[in-house]
Design goal:
The structure is a single chain. The chain is an alpha/beta fold. The termini are far apart. It has two domains: about 5-225, Alpha-Beta Complex (Spore Coat Polysaccharide Biosynthesis Protein SpsA, Chain A), CATH 3.90.550; about 250-430, Hexapeptide repeat proteins (UDP N-Acetylglucosamine Acyltransferase, domain 1, 3 Solenoid), CATH 2.160.10.10. Helices cover about 20% and strands about 30% of the residues. Helix 1 runs parallel beside helix 2 (about 60-75).
């Protein structure tokens, strides 16, 4: 089968009106990635060497994303775009991309941008049927609640006769639980003749792909059915279904992580992203969110109520609880990031201690640095971001403000409560504080003075 050419056609022209959204439905994210990205990944993993993308008018964001993603996973020359200006059904959409297979393609996979849980293994099984001589392959699943899916009508020998759309089905046909996922594959040699034979004689007056099995029978072509799990075939039509599929996706990601040796104390409270990389012996406590671009090496502990996005974390790091790591953070081994610490665009070297209530942004922190409670790097002047460099072995006392651009030298010591605006040389003690003022007067006298002042203010307001 590896010698057979394969084209993946991704249908994504639907407006998604039930989403009540200004962006195309298939651009809504699941686990940090637009849902259509999963479909493209599955097609390429199943051996598709080209992808044809069918979109609707005014979907520039979708085209830009698909073009960028396609360039990464399959190469810019192997992805093409076709606009379906008039939305006249799924068969009409596929025909919009007819020029994509004119040069001769063995296998054509017809996929939907709103069916993101489809696995590459399932698509490979479909292609095996084409390699075995089938001309049309339909992907079906047994639904616990068939809802408005089309039904797969089979004869007594379980051969597929036709697909009946819900609106056109009789009551007895609606009781069938074997449903059409919509995903289909065609032999490249017969695809055009089959698609051009589809008519719009149905309740919606549209051209349906679901007519292809019956047309194939009439042309005496071979039809095959591949059964998948209900999860693989689940489509998304509204935000409630988006939330449901998100839960399925999260369970899939969690189970993959657990199988690789990650420990999650309460997996159902941990949320991962499509590209999260977790090594074995990582421990994740409850209520943790890992956004896109996070990798975590073995032995690291992420404690409760942490949010991490775009971070590279080395071995044996301790994070949290209640830590927020924004994009651009790298943590070297044995670093400790504690309670209510926020990091952004920060390179934290090995053995660094930032244990509580600090903000470190646009900074590099050297080996073994200790940053006390309440320390902040003042990196933004209202117009530009500036960098802070804290060299190895430095000690930054609590409640200090480091005003960037700034460099703290090796083994420098910053006294608590300091505002540092100038570079500090290595092996230097630095502190800056306002002088302490004390007055020998009883506290009761201060209260009496405050009361007299309050009475005067009230009398003045009356007049």
């Amino acid at each position: 089968m590896s010698q057979r050419s394969c084209l993946g056609i991704v249908l994504a022209a639907g407006k998604g009106q039930r989403f009540l959204s200004h962006q195309p439905k298939v651009m809504h994210a699941l686990a940090g990635q637009p849902m259509v990205g999963y479909v493209m990944d599955a097609a390429v993993s199943a051996g598709a060497s080209k992808i044809a993308f069918v979109h609707g008018p005014e979907m520039s964001d979708l085209v830009s994303y698909a073009n960028e993603t396609g360039n990464k996973i399959i190469g810019k020359r192997n992805i093409s775009f076709f606009e379906q200006r008039d939305r006249l059904g799924t068969a009409h959409a596929v025909l919009a991309a007819r020029s994509a297979w004119k040069k001769g393609i063995d296998d054509i996979l017809i996929l939907f941008g709103d069916t993101p849980l489809i696995r590459s293994e399932t698509l490979i099984n479909i292609r095996k049927e084409l390699a075995g001589g089938a001309h049309v392959v339909v992907l079906g699943f047994h639904a616990s609640n068939p809802r408005h899916y089309g039904r797969l009508i089979r004869d007594k020998d379980q051969n597929l006769i036709e697909i009946r759309e819900y609106r056109d089905a009789s009551q007895s046909e609606r009781e069938i639980t074997f449903c059409n996922s919509g995903i289909m594959a065609l032999s490249g040699a017969h695809a055009l003749s089959l698609l051009e034979s589809v008519d719009s004689d149905n309740a919606q007056s549209e051209f349906y792909l679901s007519d292809l099995p019956l047309l194939a029978h009439q042309k005496q072509l071979r039809i095959a059915v591949v059964e998948c799990s209900e999860e693989d075939g689940t489509g998304i039509n509204n935000r409630a279904e988006l939330a449901y599929v998100e839960s399925l996706m999260q369970n899939r990601l969690r189970n993959e992580a657990l199988a690789k040796g990650v420990t999650m104390i309460a997996p159902e409270t941990v949320f991962l992203s499509y590209d999260t990389l977790l090594e074995s012996d990582v421990l994740i406590e409850p209520y943790v969110v890992l956004g896109p671009g996070v990798s975590v090496a073995r032995g690291t502990i992420i404690r409760s109520f942490c949010e991490i996005t775009g971070g590279k974390i080395a071995e044996n790091v301790n994070i949290g609880p209640f830590s927020h790591l924004r994009p651009g953070v790298t943590l070297d081994q044995d670093a400790t990031i504690g309670n209510f610490v926020e990091l952004k665009d920060a390179k934290i070297a090995s053995g660094v201690q930032i244990k509580h209530l600090s903000y470190v942004g646009n900074a590099t922190v050297g080996d073994g640095v200790n940053i006390g409670a309440g320390v902040i790097t003042c990196n933004y002047d209202g117009v530009h971001k500036h960098c802070t460099e804290i060299s190895a072995g430095a000690f930054i006392g609590s409640n200090s403000s480091l005003v960037a651009p700034l460099k703290i030298g090796t083994n420098a010591y910053i006294g608590a409560g300091s505002v540092i605006t100038m570079p500090i040389e290595a092996n230097t003690l630095a502190f800056r504080r306002s002088p302490l003022i004390t007055r020998k007067k009883k506290s009761a006298d201060f209260h009496k003075a405050d009361q007299r002042k309050t009475r005067k203010n009230c009398e003045a307001k009356k007049h």
